[in-house]
Design goal:
It is a single chain. The chain has about 525 residues and is α/β, with parallel strands linked by helices. The protein folds into 3 domains: about 25-115 and about 250-400, 3-Layer(aba) Sandwich (Rossmann fold); about 130-220, Orthogonal Bundle (Helicase, Ruva Protein, domain 3), CATH 1.10.8; about 405-524, no CATH class. It has 20 helices and 14 strands. Helix 6 (about 150-170) crosses helix 7.
């Protein structure tokens, strides 16, 4: 039988012993919320408590999401929006920098607005504002996106021209109600009207600093050129419906550069913010709208951006901003210090960890754990409404997500041999994305490799050549017996299998020293 021995020790030594310190995880009552009024995210890593997120427990509904490509960032965003829609009937508006979400939005039955591919937004639309207020927003936007702030005279000339465009269109600058004598809504002027006003002023020759006028005009023409006048035409988008249309994706991948994308993003944030202000607060609504800003560094980094303004006041209008980026330094510190919740997925670089730790003030222990996160794992930082005497940063074992089923395709066109006739089978076979991932896990692949393979399909529009697929599987150590079983389950016959493996052997002869990912993307 054991004996208890009493020894003397110091408080300093006792403090270092873990049984005197609560593990870095909030008590259950802060994590377990009513499933009918909160979003299930996953289980905590230490005590395996189900974590249900609700805007009612945090200082505001705004969220930041950071993590490298492939860490599960977009998967989390899709899951969160899906569940918010189900739980609260929340609408979602995605400002989609690279067109990453458009296929998912279509598949989920949402609406896609493709700027640069047919859709247009008139920068001078009021969106429920007074012209005087909208003019200030337009000028502030140009200051963020161009160098006009360095040239006060050019800024003044542009602002005056915008104001004159509204006046010529019969608008009252201090009124929200804009109708003609017959009670019909007035049509907003466009940037082309502003350009015309500046050109007329230049041609008149009465302005004493023509160079300033010419430069102001030149800057404006960047947005009015033919085929790039996405913001200088009448809107094809109904701004009044954006905040209540369910799931909406603003696809900016067709824009010519970052400035155009940022102009679209800022304008939409401004319109949405004013619309939410106009609708006001409703006790029975919950969270009305989530606006997703993904990889929009030009907007998220500037402290004068409307993204920062929304974070500071969005709670009282019952809508939240979700800012996502693989580089946390692309998100303004003003956003990090004001959002109610931050989800930190896999982060690679020390300077990013330095930025996160200094901004969110988590411990060195938590930093070391974040550096070891795998795909789908996360640390969560929450600013609770009540004073917390426990760690507000904790670990999730894995984000438990969901997204609509998605078919992937293996193509067999490369097997055709003109000398032997056509291949005796369909041009491709399909299987569900989640089925592929389930099989790969069963074959013993690590989660990071499973996601790599799924990502390669996404990059090729969900298609991959069957021979390249076989080479890829073998590259990750999957035996031909398992590959054979996989293909046979989807109807590939023996003669075709022989053809596939023969082609793979032949193709592999020329692949020494080349990265397999490059091969798949180039030759698949």
């Amino acid at each position: 039988m054991g004996r208890i021995k009493l020894i003397e020790t110091t408080n300093k030594v006792l403090r270092t012993r873990n049984f005197f310190v609560r593990p870095p995880e909030p008590p259950e009552e802060f994590l377990l919320n009513d499933p009918d009024h909160s979003i299930f995210v996953g289980y905590t890593k230490i005590f395996h408590v189900p974590f249900y997120w609700t805007y009612e427990k945090v200082t505001n509904p705004h969220i930041a999401v950071v993590g490298i490509t492939g860490a599960g960032k977009s998967y989390f965003v899709k899951t969160f929006l899906t569940r918010a829609s189900f739980i609260w009937g929340t609408n979602a508006f995605i400002i989609d920098w690279a067109g990453e979400y458009k296929d998912w939005v279509k598949q989920a039955g949402g609406k896609v607005i493709s700027l640069g591919k047919g859709s247009a937004i008139n920068l001078l639309d009021l969106g429920g504002m007074k012209p005087n207020d909208r003019i200030k927003q337009i000028v502030r936007t140009l200051e963020i996106l161009t160098d006009i702030g360095r040239y006060p005279e050019q800024k003044r000339l542009t602002e005056q021209a915008v104001e004159k465009a509204y006046v010529q269109a019969k608008f009252s600058l201090g009124s929200k109600t804009q109708k003609d004598q017959l009670g019909r809504p007035l049509k907003a002027p466009t940037l082309k009207d502003v350009q015309r006003i500046l050109e007329e002023q230049l041609e008149a020759g009465s302005y004493e600093f023509p160079a300033e006028l010419e430069n102001a005009l030149y800057r404006l023409k960047n947005f009015t050129r033919e085929d790039e006048d996405y913001f200088a035409r009448q809107s094809t988008v109904n701004l009044d419906e954006l905040t209540r249309s369910g799931l909406v994706d603003l696809d900016l991948s067709g824009m010519p550069d970052e400035v155009f994308r940022a102009l679209a993003g800022l304008s939409m944030l401004q319109f949405i913010k004013e619309k939410m202000r106009e609708e006001g607060w409703a006790a029975d609504k919950g969270l009305k709208l989530i606006v997703v800003l993904d990889e929009a560094w030009k907007i998220a980094k500037d402290e004068n951006s409307d993204a920062v303004m929304i974070v500071r006041e969005g709670r009282k209008y019952q809508f939240g901003l979700m800012v996502a980026s693989q580089n946390p330094t692309d998100i303004s510190e003003a956003i990090f210090s004001n959002v109610g919740t931050t989800f930190i997925l896999r982060v690679k670089f020390e300077r990013y960890l330095d930025y996160l730790q200094s901004t969110l003030n988590f411990s060195d222990f938590m930093r070391s754990e974040i550096a070891k996160l795998g795909v789908g794992q996360a640390a969560v930082n929450m600013a609770f409404q009540t004073t917390a005497n426990f760690s507000e940063t904790f670990l999730l074992d894995k984000i438990v997500g969901e997204e609509p089923m998605q078919d992937l395709f293996l193509d067999f066109a490369s097997l055709a041999d003109p000398g032997l006739g056509e291949v005796d089978m369909a041009k491709s076979v399909s299987f569900e994305r989640e089925e592929l991932k389930k099989r790969l896990r069963a074959y013993g692949l690590e989660e990071i490799h499973v996601e790599d393979i799924a990502t390669l399909f996404s990059k090729k529009n969900r298609h991959m050549d069957v021979v390249s697929f076989v080479i890829l599987m073998e590259r990750y150590g999957i035996s031909r017996n398992l590959i054979t079983d996989f293909l046979k389950d989807f109807g590939v016959d023996d003669s075709t299998l022989i053809n596939i493996f023969s082609k793979a052997d032949f193709k592999r002869l020329g692949l020494e020293g080349r990265d397999i990912t490059q091969v798949i993307l180039q030759d698949g």
